Amino acid sequence: MATTQTTKIRSYPAPAKLATVTDLTQAEAQAVTTAVNPLIADAFSLYVKTKNFHWHLFGAHFRDLHLLFDEHADAILASTDILAERVRRVGGTTIRSIGHISELQTIEDDNNEAVPPMEMVRRLMEDNAQIAKSVRNAISVCDKNRDLATSNLLQEILDQTERRKWFLFEILQRD
Ligand SMILES: [Fe+2]
Predict the structure, then answer these.
(1) Contact (CB, 8 A) for 106 and 1
(2) How far is the CA of 135 from the centre of ligand 1 (A)?
(3) CA quadruple 7, 13, 16, 20: dihedral positive or negative?
């Protein structure tokens, strides 16, 4: 995604005062940091989009979808802290700002004024599917770089992401 900033924010290695102890090599820790930070940016971005649809929903399925989007948003937001603290534990730095999120995010923002409810569901399903793919790739990076703890957390997040995708997909089948 294009950035308005002129300099990229460095994520690894952390400056001396933020250094942490790990038995991973520098290359391994850097690979994990580089794989995980975009997932956090995507999670923040999907959180805002899911809340946007929670707030701007209308129509016959209002109650069901309003509650479902809120449930999804809560889980997505919770994943950001889990992953960001993992990056810090391996000696990287993580998300610092909205600008940093837009530098790293891969899913598109949504600024449309009135999105039809089933189109909201379709867009969220596609974003969750894209994120599931990215998480799966990051798991393989963590496995290759001996970071099984991050890999385990990502497996849980992958399962939650696929659960959201499943619900959204099934809702689309009723129309
Ligand atoms: Fe709400």
Answers:
(1) yes
(2) 27
(3) positive
Q: Domain residue spans in the chain?
A: 25-173
Single out the residue of 109, 79, 116, 112 nearest to residue 94, CA to CA.
Answer: 79
CA of 93 to the centre of ligand 1 (A): 31
Q: Which of 152, 130, 145, 136 is nearest to 32 (CA)?
A: 145
Contact predicate 90/24, CB 8 Å: yes
H-helix segments, the chain? 26-55, 62-89, 98-104, 117-144, 148-173
Residues with Cβ within 8 Å of residue 66, at least 6 apart in sequence: 54, 57
Give distance in angstroms: CA of 123 to centre of ligand 1: 20
CATH architecture group of domain 25-173:
Up-down Bundle (1.20)
Which residue carries 């929670």 as its tokens? Answer: 54
Cβ distance 14 to 93 under 8 Å? Answer: yes
pLDDT digits (tens, 9 = 90+) for 104-160: 999 999 999 999 999 999 999 999 999 999 999 999 999 999 999 999 999 999 999
Note the pLDDT tens digit of each residue in 5-24.
556 888 888 888 787 878 89
